[in-house]
Amino acid sequence: MTFNTISVIGLGYIGLPTAAIFASQGKRVVGVDVNAHAVETINRGDIHIVEPELDAVVKTAVQQGLLRATLTPEAADAFLIAVPTPFMADHQPDLRYVKAAAESIAPVLKAGDLVILESTSPVGSTEQMVTWLAAARPDLRFPQQGEQPDIFIAYCPERVLPGQIMLELVKNDRVIGGMTPECSARASALYRIFLQGECVETNARTAEMCKLTENSFRDVNIAFANELSLICAEQDINVWELIALANRHPRVNILQPGPGVGGHCIAVDPWFIVAQNPQQARLIRTAREVNDAKPHWVLDQVKKTVADCLAQSNKRASEVTIACFGLAFKPNIDDLRESPAMEVAQLIAEWHQGSNWVVEPHISQLPAALTTSQLVGTQQALEQADILVMLVDHQAFRAIDGGQLVQQWIVDTKGVWR
Ligand code: SAJ
């Protein structure tokens, strides 16, 4: 099995790092994306997304002529599909981009090619993809038809953590879900080009469910911590102290509460299980609801704190300044998409008549959704704001000594300044 040319469809947070890593191993890689800006940027040797260490690997790969981006698929020996799989308004998965990607590569497929789906997908998506490919290429045999296929197909989910993608891509074990054992073997051979972790082979449906299970496991566990934070607020118990104490039990390991769950995966993927199994997936659905409700609970805490502030000072509401610390969806990154901190800051800005300040050292301009708020420096907020709302435990905020804060009114969703 030789893979001389590898094509990656979708050059986003997963596709571009994967393409760059194959190229760093000397493979010829053709990246395909519908976004002309992304294609131009990559062909200049630059990147259009933020991920540590990715820029240097892409630059070298492009300079060496090993990585090239294009708008239209070309012939290759292996195709990896890494396009988004969002959900629709009713939480049903939207496989439109997978279908478009499959149909775009169908014309250039040749006997012996390997096609891998990496996008997080509901169970059965790989079989569905085979149906789309087979409809577009009746001249080729696909794995579902029982005989030795011309095209080998597998589902191999990405499992890398944003912020550590370049490391985890190489180190993490890989679940390889072939449509047949031969498909799995070929897919494993492809990933072994760069993988230091193990390739663990299974079938496509189990691999699809495995990806959804990993993120649902984390969502349910964060929901447990978030529910505890609500209970502890009622009972006047410090939830972080409680969790630290409970975690001293050898078989207890509770995650951390926060303003909610964000990002593009953990807040999305559990819905794929719920959509396919509405009767059975009760805990998974409730966890999603608990986590999604958290920003509104934080707003309620802010409202109570403002009420206390007004009762104890001679200020009017319009004279009260609230400073939100952090907007990113998790610490030490600049990614504001699907961020519960953003949601809280927006909810506060829509409600509060006084000044709304935001401290976010990772950005230089506030997003359009926060036009009525003001981006200020840490020092200004610490010295002049009336109420501090801690939303993201960035390293820079953790370094602030809670004991030195002059404010009496603090809503700390991350337990940083307790
Ligand atoms: N969070 C908490 N409390 C915690 C841990 C996280 O509130 O104790 C919040 C974060 O602040 C953030 C959200 O959860 O808003 C998600 O952050 P995360 O660091 O848990 O995960 P992601 O979304 O960056 O990446 C996840 C990872 N999945 C798992 O850890 C099971 C990653 O390995 C996946 O590859 C990625 O989803 C993905 O692409 O699916």
Automatic annotation (TrEMBL):
Residue stretches spanning the membrane? none
Annotated NAD(+) binding lies at: Y13, I14, D33, T85, T126, R337
Q: What class of enzyme is it?
A: oxidoreductase
What are the binding positions for UDP-N-acetyl-alpha-D-mannosaminouronate in this chain?
R159, V160, K211, N215, R218, H249, R251, G262, F329, K330, K414
Name its pathway.
Bacterial outer membrane biogenesis; enterobacterial common antigen biosynthesis
- Which catalytic reaction applies to this protein? UDP-N-acetyl-alpha-D-mannosamine + 2 NAD(+) + H2O = UDP-N-acetyl-alpha-D-mannosaminouronate + 2 NADH + 3 H(+)
List its EC numbers.
1.1.1.336
* Residues in the signal sequence: none
Q: Where is the active site?
A: K211, C265
Cite the entry's keywords alphabetically: NAD, Oxidoreductase
Q: Which InterPro entries match?
A: 6-PGluconate_DH-like_C_sf, NAD(P)-bd_dom_sf, UDP-Glc/GDP-Man, UDP-Glc/GDP-Man_DH_C, UDP-Glc/GDP-Man_DH_C_sf, UDP-Glc/GDP-Man_DH_dimer, UDP-Glc/GDP-Man_DH_N, UDP_ManNAc/GlcNAc_DH
Record domain UDP-glucose/GDP-mannose dehydrogenase C-terminal: where: 323-418
Single annotated GO MF:
UDP-N-acetyl-D-mannosamine dehydrogenase activity
Subunit arrangement?
A: Homodimer.
The UniProt family comment states: Belongs to the UDP-glucose/GDP-mannose dehydrogenase family. WecC subfamily.
The job of this chain, per UniProt, is described as: Catalyzes the four-electron oxidation of UDP-N-acetyl-D-mannosamine (UDP-ManNAc), reducing NAD(+) and releasing UDP-N-acetylmannosaminuronic acid (UDP-ManNAcA).
Q: Indicate what this protein is called per its UniProt record.
A: UDP-N-acetyl-D-mannosamine dehydrogenase
